[in-house]
Amino acid sequence: MSGRLEDSALFARVVELGSLRAAALEAGVEPSSISRRMTALETRLGAKLLDRSGARTRPTEAGQRYHAAMRGLMGQIEAVESEISGETLRPSGRLRVAASIDFGQAHVAPWLLDFAREHPEVTPELLLDSRSVDLVRDDIDVAVRVARPPDSALMARKLADVPRALFAAPSWLEKNPIETVADLAHKTQVFFHPEHRLRPLEITDPDGKLHRLPRGPGVSINAIASIVEAVKAGFGLTAGPLWSFHSALEAGEVVQVLPDHTLPVPPLMALWRPAVVQPAVIRAFVTHIAARAREVPGLTR
């Protein structure tokens, strides 16, 4: 590895360990040596990469971008070297996965732990966030998202379809009977985001006609598990993913409203960054979760 790449790799360790001293201890050199090399790197790039003013050494905004880019580059170098040495078939190393909070807790976390159990040389990390993460900025290896494939340079594999439907508690439907599409207009709903109140409810009838209906008032909760509880408690109907209401449906705590009608069906996607040689851990994990997604009640192929 050239001197420049060595300095970049050393910078990455400073960021990950949180201090020059820790990086020096790991490398077996004096902290002053690490400090000089980091100063030389900043001088060469013409940008301040590290904030050394506090108890911990933290990357600046430029340092965060540089760290994410270099982590990806180092991963590709390691993958190429592994391929040359014949090690590409054995998943190993760090695997940083991102997913939404609800689906991630219910499914992605168990998938990742099972994968790590099968491959003890893998170090798993799971980032759960309701927002879509930036794979480069957040240094993500694989993101699992319920969304249309992005128009980007990311690699993507469809894992399953995520059917959605209308759900409500039996007690709520007794007071708010719904027999036709027209009955849905202005009904109280439970929303995932306040902005959803402003969007029309799109639903297709058995004849294939698309209806766009004005939504009514209602509470907004950005967690699907809590939305299920609110619907069960009679706070209104909701348009939600079938997988999240599967247990409540079986228990009779909610019912599907207008079950012969359909809502738009988004895909469940695995996304990862392209690379000259894809690390074995990413290839193996995507294959693993594609198989596991078939087992989730409420998802379809």
From TrEMBL:
SUPFAM superfamilies attached to this UniProt entry: Periplasmic binding protein-like II, Winged helix' DNA-binding domain
GO function terms (MF aspect): DNA binding; DNA-binding transcription factor activity
Pfam entry (one): HTH_1
CDD domains hit by this protein: PBP2_CrgA_like
Keyword field: DNA-binding, Transcription, Transcription regulation
The HTH lysR-type domain, residue ranges: 11-60
This protein's record includes keyword Transcription: yes
Database matches in InterPro entries: LysR-type_TF_proteobact-type, LysR_HTH_N, LysR_subst-bd, WH-like_DNA-bd_sf, WH_DNA-bd_sf
Domain of life of the organism encoding this protein: Bacteria
Family indicated by similarity: Belongs to the LysR transcriptional regulatory family.
PANTHER family in the record: HTH-TYPE TRANSCRIPTIONAL ACTIVATOR TTDR-RELATED, HTH-TYPE TRANSCRIPTIONAL REGULATOR
Protein's recorded name: LysR family transcriptional regulator
Organism: Pontivivens ytuae
Organism ancestry: Bacteria, Pseudomonadati, Pseudomonadota, Alphaproteobacteria, Rhodobacterales
